[in-house]
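Kindly go through one protein, given below as sequence and tokens. The question is how this chain folds according to its tokens.

***
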Amino acid sequence: MEHQTSIAEGGQPCDGRLTIEPFLTRLGRQIDLAQRRLRFRLADSRFNPRRIPTLDPQRFAGLRVIIIGPAATVVEDLAGIDVDGFDVIVRLNNGIPPALAAPAVLGARTDILFHNLNETGPRPAGAIPPELLRRAGVKICVFPHWGFQGNKRALERKRRELSGVSEVSLQVPPARFYEGLRRDLDGLKPTIGLVAIAYFLACPLRELQIHGFTFFQTRYLPGYNDQVTTDEDARRWVGSSERHDPARERLLVQQTLQRARDRDLTVTLGRHVETHLWVS
């Protein structure tokens, strides 16, 4: 007997296939998501002997920290500031080469490097071979996207590459902190700059200075990203990612900054950071 498929109003078959197949697809995605979350929880467990070390906020208690972003305006932001006088100098992604080229302006050290570990491909963040990290004096390399959706393959590759480099520790921010940022952004991926700024605003520092951020409204320093040489390039670069929302991140930085100041943390923003943070 041939299978009979009745036709419902609108000309669609109503034998159940059109409702079951989307259900099975959604169910498969939910199962995959649950498995990925479970694998991440196991990787992040304190009982995991191969767990990536977590960047401890108490490590920075009472210290003076400066975060140097990649915007070309950082040169004006840092006028008159002794960068190397800070206890901790933080840079992002491909921030080491510009600093090595202009240490008198940008500082000679890089104590902590936040890097997304995308060293190749169409949107590279800059290669960081061990010899470059050693030359810059990097003590901690931070992979910022430590959540179940982060690029674990790149993290594992870098861990293997640095396994014999005792001077550099590969670490991640607390998972709860990173997942909180994603919730605040309604699931969007935070930029590496937001992760660094929000992390240190929550630390028990003596002082924090933030320079070289214009929230993708101006070009980068020469040598940071050759694909972004104009202000329009910067806006196009972040827009093409489809994973970041600079306006929402700017609002989140405003809120996090206010909370930090409410607990009496001394926070100084570079002139251009201040201007672009509060622009309407």
